Amino acid sequence: MTEWTQFKGDPHNSGLRRDLEGPGRVSEAWTTDLIGPPGSPVLDRDTVYVGTARGHCYALERETGRRRWTFETTAATDATPVVTHERLYLGTDDGTVSALDPATGEERWRTALPGSLEAALALSNGRLYAGHADGLSALEAETGTELWTHETESAVVGAPAIADGREGEQRRSALGEAPDDDILESEAPSLLDAERVREPDRQWGATEERVFAGTAAGTVLALAAETGEEAWTAPATGAVAGGPTIADGRVYVGDEGGTLLALDAGTGQTWFAYEIGDGFTTSVTVLAAAETTFIGADDGYCHATDTTVGRRKLRGWLFSRKGIELDGPIRSCPVVAGDVLCVGDATGSLYGIDVDDAEPLWQFAADDAISGTPALAAERLYVGSEAERLHCLEWDADERPY
Question: What is the pTM of this model?
Answer without folding.
Answer: 0.91
